[in-house]
Amino acid sequence: MRARLAAALGALILVSGCDSAQRTNEPSLPPPRIISGLVPGPVACTGPPPFARPAEPSLAADPNDPRQLVATWLENPAGTVVAVSHDGGGSWTRSPLPGLLTCAGGRYAHTSDPWVSIGQDGTIYVASLGTRPAASSTTAHDIVVSVSRDHGMSWEAPVIVETASAPPTQPDKEAILADPRLPATAYLVWVDYRVTAGVDPSVDQVMFARTSDGGRTWSTPAAIYSGGDEAQQNQLLLTAGGVLLDVFAEAPSLPGTPHPPPLPVKIRVIRSTDQGKTWSAPIDAARFTYTNAVDPGTGAQLRFFGQNISTASAGNAVYVSWFEDHSDFSTVLVARSEDAGLDWRTPQLVVREKAEAFLPTLAVAGDATVGLLWFDFRHFTRGSRTLDTSVWFSTSRDRGVHWTERRAAGPFDLRAVPASRFGPFIGDYMGLVGLPDGFAAAFVQGKPASRNGPTDMFFSRIAG
Q1: Which of 88, 77, 79 is nearest to 35 (CA)?
Q2: What's residue 11's pLDDT?
């Protein structure tokens, strides 16, 4: 299997001509700016210095005014933080998302998985997964949505879309999409795992809800897909023809181990032509081998898994990206559909490096230029005490066939980033959004780039 995969990737390299290992120079983007820092709020929610520990950003632009940008991220102990810019990223104001954490009068011990989207009428929606304080043998989790109707100046009380207790049910990884054409309309997707005490869950079903009154109320959550296995990283897209897509990675089980056995994974798409009331059978967009990034110096596990896919759309074109880290090379690939997700072309190779590459994030600019952000270890030196990690950005002006690569930031020391259960945690996704004249990106870096703590949130405005 590994030999066949290497041969196939070799053919892709010849087609795309983008083997970055052959390049001798490193064109770079302008340095990014830090947008995280001290967050105002109740003393109980700030904690002692260092204040900033940002991770897992989501980023959105107002479809009618791209100067209006909203970023959201995790920042313990402040919870979910929102940062708003009214000048295209030149300046930012930060605040905790109100009404969530118990330290600020809310219900939740902590929040996770923030996701932001802005509607046609300027309404901002931020979805979060709220975890209530543990009670006896169960823990309650809520899918919640917070809304702002004044460009992020104020936020309404969060609305609970679903409540579930684990065991037997645990929600995870929600994503929200505001309809860019219909005012007061947004869609929400997540998964519900079947949970048994003391066992990592591996079977889930995809859940969906929508609002038609600007987030004041939501439809009763409905299961829209269940393959009897694990579907993860669900993301919603809306095509020019009004087709709503849910794109996800699916496999019998998605292990969190440093060196998983060869595991075939499908990227699948389900389609709705009636705003999510009914959904099609799944369509296979791509197949790949699941891998898990590891520290190249120590072999320790890193929290970058094969299910960390990313999607984007423009018109009726749809894109999905993923990474694969093998024993002697690493790749990031992009697959494309030209007909709103019905048919998919052979994946194009964007990155091929000896060093591990991971966490790709896609977006499409107003002129149909495709942008891809990712991280890799090409600047790491074996034996070094630091795990030098760089941020890269590549663009394609021909729908993903050929790519131009530039270094976006770094290197920073990934080993110095705060740890999670599965290793250093900067997030399971980054923020990237297409603008009429380029892209905006929000991503995490650690020391020595960070200034306010072990990590900071960085913002880049990128010309197409």
Answers
A1: 88
A2: 36
